[in-house]
């Protein structure tokens, strides 16, 4: 094949047109005649017994069509699944409770559902439902929750719902060899995804009795879970996934779908449900707070000899994806470093806080903050500079991950990305103000792309070449805004030599599109990209072979460019693509293909001693920042931010840069301002007035450097970038703060208050 | 509740509606006129996703009472392109990759057109400052600021 025609070009995304015109219909932009409006009654307490629920008055309200409580749900308790069709054992499946029954476990938990003629009536009905609670003490700190005799959140006799471990060498002997040892504890808070589009959707029953749910979801495979709740065959529930107004992991668990299905099934009318912002923040999952105890030992020259890490994650009130996130964190805990002696132990613990689950990074950002902070402490203690200490310890191609021993057979762009990021900071900003101190920080990291290999992940895609030379793609791929759908169009356009405008893609529909798996785990470029590439190449082969026969030349001499089949790239010697398609059709050659791509399969590891391959591959990156710290106010301004990743191959550089920039700012919010504050299980930051995310004025000069090693497992050597892009920035910023003012902040976010308290320690401790 | 008769122009078309005194403009635009390009993001004026132009000025339709638009002129995102010809700001957002999930995009584009009308030669800092009321969770604002900057002197002053 000749050089790329569309792949690698910074082109506008396929979906961008209908987004700039406002024509795209998101989940909340769609209505049906006669539809009802749903509302959810939510718990006012983080832990309480439900003594009684009285719906009598609410039922009498004119315009109320249905009120449902737990007793109306056929299978109110099932298990959480996440699109996997493989049995992975009990350790990963938690209780999925649709509506609270005898007790509530967190504030905002759903207790009852209402469907009414108008939104106002539905809201009024909520006020008329009388729930009698008996508050319970609850437990809100995961460390407290682990202690014997602690308040039990669930029914299993312990609050610990997952324990993991891995490592290598001999930790005692390792530390005995160390010439310097550093111990520290790092903490990270609850974080909200804060997508601009809240959760929402509409459901109706079609002519054949199938429940159709049009919803913004990262996991359309939840149709099975919804069917299980209603006791219906799986093929009687259909998800029609919409383009999402952001997901970031928050639309990975079921949100509105089960409620919609129950209400439409009960009323036999279309039902719409859209969360308010407050409801969204109260009720959907959060990023896991972790308490991370780290100890590292090194030689005087900076060479690492031992690492010991203990991680405790707050799972909140229900398991959801906590065991998986904790496993990710466990595998990531030693970072991209070669350390001969490692021990990692971790667990996730139920509390009566809002439940935690997937959030962009999925267990990578938390340990990254810990290990890159302690590496920085080590660099200062030993007086080895930031880049050098990483250079002498980092993984390289062919080396193995120090936690699990997984060998990197693909390209590892370390220390290259670190060197590039650090150098790109350029000359330091000059600052003459006495209260304004400038500092620089560096951090490196890794994160997997593709799901855990013991899930036996696969994706399918269908491509059809029409008789007029246009193309139809069908893929179950959900698009959360990252450009997942457009990417598939670009691959097909490349392979079949047609412009993007000639492609129509149908996506994210469990009835009509082949299931492509979840838009999670930074897996779609890799998985659905490869499935689509496989299908497109099959069709390409058939077309080229036919053309070769027609031209009487060797197929290897042919290429499809601009809807022409060229011989040796000679513009004067070609067949129009349409002519070859006609010939194929006449000869009965199939110009459609549904292909499946399988990730590598492994068996479920021993969770307390995870060894070998657990992920298909990893993405490596580095971030470097320059900050200014105001020593009077504690205000931090990020002045420069460099983000450098080996993306393998940037299929659409504009999208990849967008991920790297957006991911950096997502992570900058984590570092400096974002925290869902929970006081004894009560969310104190339930709106955008309290939960603050970065605005245009907070954003520094960002430089994205794309390294394209071609060493990834995705199409054309691409790696995944969506989640890795946000996972490294926090320690880079906090290391820069240390460099500026000598203050080490060990809990996120690094708020001005924390900076001032640390800077004026003497004053505050008087 | 007693309804109020109002008349206004939206995207060049005259409309007459009866609204309740507490009806919010966003609900009228989305639910009664089916112009769903204006988005609900927070309902309290913190995110800017519901921005529309009222007599050319950006306003938050989630905080504006419908009754107050009587006699005024509204532009929503659907009214920006002329036929199939996109507005230069829409083109700039496309070209610069300023659109990811797209949920903030209508509000961003409308606010940006108002900015460049007020100040066609805005500096990057002025752009950032003017856009601070429009939240975006995907892009980190980099490509959005680039798109707006690229549009300078490119907008008709009409």
Key terms for this structure?
heterodimer, A: 766 residues, alpha+beta, Aldehyde Oxidoreductase, domain 3, Aldehyde Oxidoreductase, domain 4, 7-stranded mixed beta sheet, 5-stranded mixed beta sheet, 26% strand, globular, B: 158 residues, DNA polymerase, domain 1, 2 domains, 5 helices, 5 strands
How many domains of chain B?
2
* Percent in helix of chain A: 25-40%
The main sheet of chain A comes to: 7 strands, mixed
Low-confidence stretches of chain A are: none
Helix content of chain B: 25-40%
Second-tier CATH architecture of the largest domain in chain A: 2-Layer Sandwich
Instruction: Assess the beta-strand content of chain B as a share of residues.
Output: 15-25%
Q: Structural class from helices and strands of chain A? A: alpha+beta
Strand content of chain A: 25-35%
Give the gist of this structure.
Chain A is of the alpha+beta class.
Fold and architecture overview:
Chain A is an alpha+beta fold. Chain A has 3 domains: 16-23 and 458-598, Aldehyde oxidase/xanthine dehydrogenase, molybdopterin binding domain (Aldehyde Oxidoreductase, domain 4); 31-136 and 199-274, Aldehyde oxidase/xanthine dehydrogenase, a/b hammerhead (Aldehyde Oxidoreductase, domain 3); 290-452 and 604-765, Aldehyde oxidase/xanthine dehydrogenase, molybdopterin binding domain (Aldehyde Oxidoreductase, domain 4). Chain A contains 19 helices and 30 strands. In chain A, strands 3-7-1-14-11-12-13 form a 7-stranded mixed sheet, sandwiched between helices. Chain A has a 5-stranded mixed sheet with strand order 9-17-16-15-10, sandwiched between helices. In chain A, β16 (304-316), α9 and β17 (341-350) form a beta-alpha-beta unit. The termini of chain A are far apart. The mean pLDDT of chain A is 96. Chain B is an alpha+beta fold and 158 residues long. Chain B folds into 2 domains: 4-79, Ubiquitin-like (UB roll) (Roll); 88-150, Orthogonal Bundle (DNA polymerase, domain 1), CATH 1.10.150. The model of chain B has no long low-confidence stretch (mean pLDDT 95). Chains A and B meet through α1 and α16 of A and α2, α3, α4 and α5 of B.
């Amino acid at each position: 094949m000749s050089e790329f025609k569309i792949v690698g070009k910074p082109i506008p995304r396929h979906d961008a047109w209908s987004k700039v015109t406002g024509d795209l219909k998101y989940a909340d932009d769609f209505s049906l005649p006669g539809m009802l409006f749903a509302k959810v009654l939510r718990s006012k307490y983080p832990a309480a017994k439900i003594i009684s629920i009285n719906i009598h008055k609410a039922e009498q309200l004119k315009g109320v069509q249905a009120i449902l409580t737990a007793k109306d749900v056929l299978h109110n308790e099932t298990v959480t699944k996440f699109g996997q069709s493989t049995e992975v054992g009990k350790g990963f499946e938690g209780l999925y409770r649709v509506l609270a029954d005898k007790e509530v476990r967190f504030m905002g938990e759903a207790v009852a559902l209402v469907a009414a003629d108008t939104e106002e009536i539905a809201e009024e009905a909520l006020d008329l439902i009388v729930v009698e609670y008996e508050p319970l003490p609850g437990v809100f700190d995961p460390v407290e929750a682990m202690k014997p005799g602690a308040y039990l959140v669930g029914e299993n006799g312990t609050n610990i719902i997952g324990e993991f471990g891995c490592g290598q060498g001999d930790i005692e002997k390792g530390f005995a060899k160390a010439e310097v040892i550093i111990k520290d504890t790092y903490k990270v808070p609850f974080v909200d995804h804060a997508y601009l589009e809240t959760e929402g959707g509409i459901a109706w029953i079609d002519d054949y009795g199938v429940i159709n749910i049009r919803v913004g979801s990262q996991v359309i495979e939840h149709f099975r879970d919804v069917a299980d709740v209603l006791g219906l065959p799986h093929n009687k529930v259909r998800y029609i996934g919409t383009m999402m107004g952001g997901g970031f992991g928050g639309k990975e668990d079921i949100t509105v779908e089960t409620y919609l299905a129950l209400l439409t099934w009960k009323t036999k009318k279309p039902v719409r449900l859209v969360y308010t912002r407050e409801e969204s923040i109260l009720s959907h999952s959060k990023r896991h707070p972790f308490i991370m105890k780290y100890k590292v030992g090194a030689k005087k020259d900076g060479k690492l000899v031992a690492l010991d890490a203990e991680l405790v994650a707050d799972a909140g009130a229900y398991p959801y994806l906590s065991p998986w996130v904790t496993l990710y964190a466990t595998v990531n805990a030693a970072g991209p470093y070669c350390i001969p002696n490692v021990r990692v132990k971790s667990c996730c613990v139920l509390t009566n806080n809002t439940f935690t689950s997937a959030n962009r990074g999925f267990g990578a950002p938390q340990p990254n903050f810990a290990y890159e902070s302690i590496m920085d402490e080590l660099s200062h203690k030993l007086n080895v500079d930031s880049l050098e200490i990483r250079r002498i310890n980092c993984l390289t191609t062919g080396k193995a991950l120090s936690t699990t021993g997984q060998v990197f057979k693909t390209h590892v762009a370390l220390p290259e990305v670190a060197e590039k990021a650090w150098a790109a900071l350029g000359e330091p900003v000059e600052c003459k103000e006495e209260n304004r101190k400038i500092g620089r920080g560096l951090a490196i990291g890794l994160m997997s792309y593709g799901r855990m290999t013991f899930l036996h992940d696969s994706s399918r895609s269908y491509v059809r070449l029409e008789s007029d030379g246009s193309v139809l793609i069908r893929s179950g791929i959900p698009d959360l805004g990252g450009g997942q759908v457009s990417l598939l169009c670009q691959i097909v356009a490349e392979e079949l030599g047609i412009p993007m405008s000639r492609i129509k893609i149908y996506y994210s529909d469990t009835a009509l599109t082949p299931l492509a798996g979840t838009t999670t785990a930074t897996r779609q470029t890799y998985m659905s990209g490869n499935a689509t590439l496989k299908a497109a190449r099959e069709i390409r082969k058939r077309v080229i072979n036919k053309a070769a026969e027609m031209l009487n030349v060797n197929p290897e001499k042919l290429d499809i460019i601009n809807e022409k089949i060229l011989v040796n790239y000679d513009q004067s010697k070609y067949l129009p693509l349409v002519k070859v398609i006609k010939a194929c059709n006449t000869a009965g050659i199939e110009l459609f293909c549904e292909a499946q791509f399988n990730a590598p399969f492994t068996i479920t590891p021993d969770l307390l001693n995870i060894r070998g391959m657990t992920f298909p591959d990893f993405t490596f990156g580095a971030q470097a920042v320059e900050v200014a710290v105001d020593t009077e106010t504690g205000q931090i301004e990020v002045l420069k931010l460099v983000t450098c990743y080996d993306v393998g191959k940037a299929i659409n550089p504009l999208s990849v840069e967008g991920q790297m920039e957006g991911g950096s700012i997502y992570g900058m919010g984590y570092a400096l301002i974002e925290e869902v504050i929970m006081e004894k299980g009560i969310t104190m930051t339930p709106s955008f007035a309290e939960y603050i995310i970065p605005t245009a004025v907070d954003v520094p000069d960002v430089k994205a450097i794309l390294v394209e090693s071609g060493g990834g497992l995705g199409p054309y050597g691409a790696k995944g970038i969506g989640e890795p892009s946000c996972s490294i920035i926090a320690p880079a910023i906090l290391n820069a703060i240390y460099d500026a003012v000598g203050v080490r902040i060990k809990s996120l976010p690094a708020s001005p208050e924390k900076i001032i308290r640390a800077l004026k320690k003497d004053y505050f401790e008087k | 509740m007693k309804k109020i008769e109002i008349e206004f122009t939206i995207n060049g078309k005259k409309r007459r509606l009866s609204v309740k005194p507490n009806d919010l403009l966003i609900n009228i635009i989305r639910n009664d006129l089916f112009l769903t390009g204006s988005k609900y993001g927070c309902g309290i004026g913190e995110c800017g996703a519901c921005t529309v132009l009222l007599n050319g000025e950006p306003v938050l339709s989630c905080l504006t009472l419908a009754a107050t638009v009587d006699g005024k002129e509204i532009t929503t995102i659907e009214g920006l392109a002329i036929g199939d010809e996109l507005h230069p700001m829409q083109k700039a957002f496309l070209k610069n990759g300023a659109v990811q999930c797209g949920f903030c995009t209508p509000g961003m584009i409308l606010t940006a057109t108002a900015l460049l009308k007020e100040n066609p030669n805005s500096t990057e800092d002025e752009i950032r400052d003017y856009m601070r009321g429009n939240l975006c969770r995907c892009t980190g604002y980099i490509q959005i600021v680039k798109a707006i900057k690229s549009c300078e002197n490119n907008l008709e002053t009409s």
